[in-house]
Every structure is written in C-alpha cells, then in structure tokens.
Amino acid sequence: MKRSPSTEPLLALSGVTKAFGAVVALRDGTLALHPGSIHALVGENGAGKSTIVKIIAGLYRRDGGDIRLAGSPVDFTSTAEAKAAGIAVIYQEPTLFPDLSVTENIFMGRQPRGRFGRIDRTRMRIETEALFARLGLRMDPERTADGLSIADQQMIEIAKAISLDAQILIMDEPTAALSGIEVDRLFDVARALRDEGRALVFISHRFDEVFALCDTITVMRDGSYISTRAITETDPDSVVAEMVGREITELFPKLETTIGDPLLEVTSLTSPGIFSDISFTVRAGEIVGLAGLVGAGRSEVARAIFGVDDYQSGEVRLTGTRIRKSAPTAAMRAGLALVPEDRRKQGLVLDESVARNTAAVILDSIARLGLVTARAEQRAARPWAEQLEVKTTALSTLAGTLSGGNQQKVVLGKWLATNPRVLIIDEPTRGIDVGTKSEVHRLLSTLASQGMAVLMISSELPEVLGMADRVVVMREGRITATIDRAEATPENVMRAATQTPSTQTEQAA
Q1: Of 72, 132, 143, 420, which residue is the least packed, with the fewest Cβ within 10 Å?
Q2: Which SUPFAM superfamilies has this protein been placed in (predicted)?
Q3: Contact present, 338 and 304 (Cβ < 8 Å)
C-alpha cells in the first residue's frame, strides 16, 4: 500500500552551486526528496541534473548552498560517505567490471566474509539469486559481465543498488536501453521501494514514463531550479515549455521527400544464433525504421552490415556494389556510416577532445603532407558542433567530460562529417533531452530530403512512427513485418514485435 509522502524531506538541497573553472555547471540546485515518494528530475542536457546527482553521490564537492540529510547538514567528500549515508545511484551508463562475474560486480568492495575471513561466495550467490528473483531477471550469477547487453548491464546496476538497501535511490535514465517488459518490471520494483518508505529520484527524457511512475516533478534549466509540482498538477507540454524556455511545436518534423533508387540492399543476411534471412532495402531519400524489442537482433544486423561483426551468408550492396563483409573501412569508403548504440564504448575515445573525436574518421581528408593539426581538427569539427548544439566551452574539451546527450551529438557529428550516402543510426536520441530530440529528428529528415538513405534503429515507438517512411520489424533475429508509413500503428508494430515469426504475416513493403 502506498504511503503518503512525509512532510519532512529526507534529503534537501537549497541554492547549491558548482563551477568548473570559468564554467558554471550549477547556479541554483534546489531539490527536496521525501520518504515514500518518487521524484522526477527533468531538464535539457546541460541543465545541471548530472551535477546535482554527482554532488549528492559524493563525486563532486559543492561550492555553495546547503545540503541536509534528515534535517542535519551534510557535505559528502567521497562516494563511500554517500553510500554509508544510505544513498545509491544508478548511472545512465553501466560501470561494470567486464572480467568479473555478475555476482562479484554486485558485491564489489563489500563481499561477505565467512570463517577465517574468507569471502563467502555461497552467500553471495544466494543473495544474488534472491535479487534476480525480485527483479524477474533470468541470468547465471556466475557468468562474467563481459558481453552483456546494455539492458542486462543496467539491470545488474539496479540489483546492485537494491542490495545496498539504500533509503535514497537515484536512477539516471535507467530505462534507456530496456524493453517494455523490463521497464514494467523496473517500475514495479520502484513502486515497491517507494511503498517501503524510500525516496527515489527518476531522471528521464521519456515523459510517458515520468507521468506514469512519479509523484512529484522538478524542472531545471541552464543550471538553475525552475519549479517543483505534484505530477497531477502539470502536463508534458507545460514541463517542456519550462525545460526549454520555449514550446516544442513539432517533435517529429518529417519532411516530404521524393524516394529514389535503392542505395542499401541487404539480402538473406544470416548469422546463426543471432539473426537469420534478413532482407530489406533503403532507398535514397527514405528513412527506414528498424523496430523490435531489446534482444531482437537489430543492433547486431546493423553491425554486420557495416562490417564490425561477421556473418555467415547473404550479402550487402551499396549503390549496386557488393560490400566485402567484416570490412568497416571498405563500407566507409563506399559511403556507409554507423552511429552505434553504445556511444561510450563504440563511438568515442573519452580521453580525447571533441574536435579529435569528430575528425577521427576523416583524417585523410584534412591532413596536409601527412600531418593533422589541432587547428584542422577544430575546423572540421566546428560546423557539426554548432549545428548539433554541442554544449561545451571549447572543442578541446575531453569527450568524457560531456553529458551523455552531448556525447551522442559528438558521435553523430563524427559520422556525418564523412558525408555518407547511407547513414545507419542506432538509438539516435537515447539519453537526449526533448529539445535536442526535435533538432536531431529535423536533421535526419533534412538529410533524407537531400537524398541520403537512413536506417534508424529505435526502441521508442513514437520516434519510429513519427520519422520512418517504412518500418521493418524484427523478433528473435528475424524480420516479421515490413509496414508502410501510412499503415504503421503502435498496435500492428507491437504485434509484429511480439508474435513468433512463423505466425506473423509479412505486410507489403
């Protein structure tokens, strides 16, 4: 039974500030978390949400303002202090140790001890199995974290946080890579924790989830507190207006285009145990949405097309010419680009600058006498940084210091700098705020109107329906339907994504 939120905040921030040199990341961090409540924290990338979270978690020290825990002033100087105070954070990007087992990751730094001080591995396994049962997660506790999907990694992070029995649980974009069923399971767990009297923070750009789960919502903009309201006293349009300081009138600005000849042709592509008999085309001026639940094989198909992953049989053709498999360089030279799902591991060199990351795949075109200067890198990167509105003080800023949404923009700019004929983009707006989503959608639509072929993989059904000229649906490694834009509805796309391939009738391409 849901408890009424306490009138006394468990954690309260008032006027908290934080600057990094001349850059002010947080001007007015104000937030009150009550026991028995799920509190949404929303704002565009760069609004200050991540800075607040890192201050609460003990990663950053505040420069000014007041923080109180159960009414007493606190100033965490380390993550260990914050954890000891009952605060757990699930970050947007998983931080597992790939060579350790799932169980070892969950209990890292706090392994239970048995006789003679030895680690009690049996107890660890039993407790991990209990956590998995609570989350409805089917996974071998002894398997290594290496190779887990982002969705599975995220669920392990959630299990780790729950195992801490924290009184304050902060979830930063926890559903970004989860399927609908996994989101429902997470929400059930979140509500159960709330009903036990814990305070939860939910950070998300998905307003349907915010309004379905949360009790209270705080809006931030440009590092400052804007408002806090009960979720029943506001609506998505009002929240968006406060977030961006303007109204987003068209989230899916789809331009009418003339569809041309096939540019990308995939025929009978098969990788046993991963995907089978994948065939589709993407034409000039066309956006094809590749839809399906997490685990359907969409990203694996994209990686195989680009040559990152091998496949057993089938072929990929670009403008009629067969592309050699397992050869990304050949695919790039032919005019193919891939913006990957996991930007941190597959899309960026985090310890390099924004400029160097953006220019990384076009070095041959900007080199002079075999040398590439920092000025040349910045000259190549600047137009894309400006067009995509990458929020950074300088193009020399390290990519790893940017927010998740801005990292996504850098990856997108890097591949668009190659001037591809075919763009494959996997989860184009994952972790990106609502204002920037509209800009990314407008950019994709503009690129298609200029004759580019776009293959867009997205777990957000509104995005697929709003942007795609055709929807190719996958389930368990097979295409179950190809649906024209005019006929595509949430119902028939989800039906194709959830029924077995053998019983699903393919619709007209």
Answers
A1: 72
A2: P-loop containing nucleoside triphosphate hydrolases
A3: no
